[in-house]
Amino acid sequence: MGSGDNRGAERRNAREWAVDIGAFLFAACFLVLSTDQVVIEPGTSGTALALDQLRGGLACAALFLRRRRPVELAVVLLLLEPFSHFMAGPIMVALFTVAVRRPPRVTGYVAILAFAPLPFVLAHRPDLDDPRTGSALTYFVLLAATVGWGLYVRSRRQLIASLRERADQAAADARREAREDVAREMHDVLAHRLSLLSVHAGALEFNPDAGRDQVARAASVIRESAHQALQDLREIIGVLRAPETGDRPQPVLADLERLADESRKAGADVRLDLEVDGGLEAAPAVAGRTAYRIVQEGLTNARKHGSDSGAPVTVTVRGGAGRGLTVEVRNPAPSPGAGSSARVPGAGQGLIGLAERALLAGGTLEHGRVDGDFRLRAALPWPGTAPAAAPQAAPAPDTTH
């Protein structure tokens, strides 16, 4: 491991210190409780036994290094095991640490070293009644259980980390989608209102000799549009501040008449051609809302980029259950090179946002010049079954001769 890992290991938090102390106490208690089960070779002096126990205690104390050097610690303890009868507890803790904190390949190498004496023990065909045989087999069973438990803990931690990462990514995606939804909503709503403001303000600026009635009418539209823009902005901000209280009311297809009236008050010549099975109220909410936003953006673009503020804008809506909903907005396109300094500037994001809206609704959007007009056309799904055609009457029999 690099120096960064070492510095991180030195700065243990309270939980890590508690875990390390618990590991030390486990190894120490295992040493004390298994003392009576350790088979002492005949002729072993009391001094040698005390030194053996001291080595076991030092091995327990060395476990505080397991976070910095888990593999090295495990290898050293395994190499010292033949010279001490009290290494089982520290070795189990060290092997568990390696299995949890290191890749399975490294764990496998350390496990091979740990189980290397087992073939030699079995090769000598030990007597099962010999206490030393039972002690050795118990030792290897404990090592196997320790490695298996460590690998399980490692896999579980990786699973939890993966799930947490997916949850964080999902939350980030949700926040990004929410920001995009709010951006589209603010663009669609405010661009429409502010374009009305700009058109009338521009008319007042470039027509200073307008009569009092015209000025009053333009000022009224400006005031109403500004009030509506502030109201829409307040509603959007309210949703952002308290999203759990519910979404703001969304427009439907039946609101197209109101939208067209607003543009007509601003001086636009908006012509509606609506033919929807069952009436505008019958359109699905998603398709109706998307169609409304498409028409709204089309009218805004006509004011911004149209060849003439008084040129007609034709809005055509056709559709029904089972055959989808088609929305088309057409207005005369400006001639190449034509422009006016009074035109409303655009951010260039409106059509991109509409394409995203149409895609989210399951439809498609296309735009461009057609026969001298700028056309904005969308096809949106309308699930259902189209009404069956009326049966045709059978032809009358021919009685002429």
UniProtKB/TrEMBL annotation:
<dbReference type="GO" id="GO:0016020">
    <property type="term" value="C:membrane"/>
</dbReference>
<protein>
    <recommendedName>
        <fullName>histidine kinase</fullName>
        <ecNumber>2.7.13.3</ecNumber>
    </recommendedName>
</protein>
<dbReference type="InterPro" id="IPR050482">
    <property type="entry name" value="Sensor_HK_TwoCompSys"/>
</dbReference>
<dbReference type="Pfam" id="PF07730">
    <property type="entry name" value="HisKA_3"/>
</dbReference>
<dbReference type="InterPro" id="IPR036890">
    <property type="entry name" value="HATPase_C_sf"/>
</dbReference>
<dbReference type="InterPro" id="IPR011712">
    <property type="entry name" value="Sig_transdc_His_kin_sub3_dim/P"/>
</dbReference>
<dbReference type="GO" id="GO:0000155">
    <property type="term" value="F:phosphorelay sensor kinase activity"/>
</dbReference>
<dbReference type="GO" id="GO:0005524">
    <property type="term" value="F:ATP binding"/>
</dbReference>
<dbReference type="GO" id="GO:0046983">
    <property type="term" value="F:protein dimerization activity"/>
</dbReference>
<feature type="domain" description="Signal transduction histidine kinase subgroup 3 dimerisation and phosphoacceptor">
    <location>
        <begin position="179"/>
        <end position="244"/>
    </location>
</feature>
<keyword id="KW-0808">Transferase</keyword>
<keyword id="KW-0418">Kinase</keyword>
<keyword id="KW-0902">Two-component regulatory system</keyword>
<keyword id="KW-0547">Nucleotide-binding</keyword>
<keyword id="KW-0067">ATP-binding</keyword>
<keyword id="KW-0597">Phosphoprotein</keyword>
